[in-house]
Amino acid sequence: MTKPSFDLTQHLAQEHKMTPLTTYLKEIVYGGNDGIVTTFAVVAGFAGAQANVVSRLPMVAVLLFGFANLFADGVSMALGNFISTRSEQDVYNSEKQKEQYEIVHNTQLEQLESVEILIKKGFTREQANDLVAIYMKNSSYWTDFMMSQELELANPEGGNALLMSLVTFFSFLIFGFIPLVPYVFFRGPELFGLSIGATATALTLLGVIRWKVGRQGFVQSVGETLLLGGAAALVSYFVGTLFRI
Fold first, then answer.
1. Rounded CA gap, 66 and 175, in Å?
2. Distance CA 89, CA 167 (A)
3. pLDDT tens figures, 138-160
4. Which DSSP letter does residue 2 get?
5. DSSP 243
6. DSSP string of 81-126, one letter each residue
7. How crowded is residue 227: how many other Cβ atoms within 10 Å of its Cβ?
8. Which residues are within 8 A (CB) of 114 and not within 5 positions of it... i.e. 6 or more apart?
9. Cα gap 82→17, rounded to integer Å
10. Contact criterion met (CB below 8 Å) for 33 and 206
11. pTM of the model as a whole
C-alpha cells in the first residue's frame, strides 16, 4: 500500500498560515508602533507648546522636525535591529560550537545531561535513555536539542538580519508618516485634531495586523496597541505644555 505524500511546506502554509507577514510580524509591529508614537510625539509636543496659538512657524517646525525624526529614527532603529540580530546569531553560533565540541570530546557527560533533561520533562529514565541513544545517532539534532533544552536559547540562524532591518525601517517610515499627513495636505487650526485622528487610525491598523496575523483576541490586539500608543502620545503632549513658543 502506497503511503500518501506529505508536503510540510504546503501544510505550514495552509494549516498554520505561515506567511512572510507572519515571519516579520515582530519587525512590522515594532517599527510601526515606534514610528507612530515617536512621530506623533513631535506633533503633540509642538501642539502643547503652542498653547492653541495658530502660527505658520509651528506648522513648518512640525514638518521639519517630524520628517527629520522619521528618517533619522527609522535608520537608527533599522541599524539597531541589524546589529542586535547579528549579535544574537554570533552568541548562538559560539555556544553551538561549544556544544558540538562537547558532544564529540565529552560524549558521556553530554549523554548524562541529556537524560536528566528528559527526565525533568516527564520521561522515565528508561525512556530518556532510549531517546538519547537515538539522538546520539544524529549529532546535528542532538546539538539543537542541547541548545534549546539545556541552554534554552532560541535558534536565530534562520533570521535574515538585513531583511529584518529593512522591514523595521519601512514599517517605521510608513506608519510614522501617518501622523504627519494632515500637516502635509491640509492647513488650518484643526491640524492637531486631524493628526490625533490619523494617529488613532494608524494604531488601530497596526492592532488589526496583530490580530489577523497573531490570531489573538481582536479587543486585546487593537486595545493594547491603542492604549500604549495613546499613553505615549499623552506624555508627549504634557511635556509640550511645559514650554511655550
1. 13
2. 18
3. 999 999 999 999 999 989 988 89
4. P
5. S
6. HHHHHHHHHHHHHHHHHHHHHHHHHSHHHHHHHHHHHHHHTT--HH
7. 12
8. 128, 132, 135, 142, 145, 146, 150
9. 26
10. yes
11. 0.80
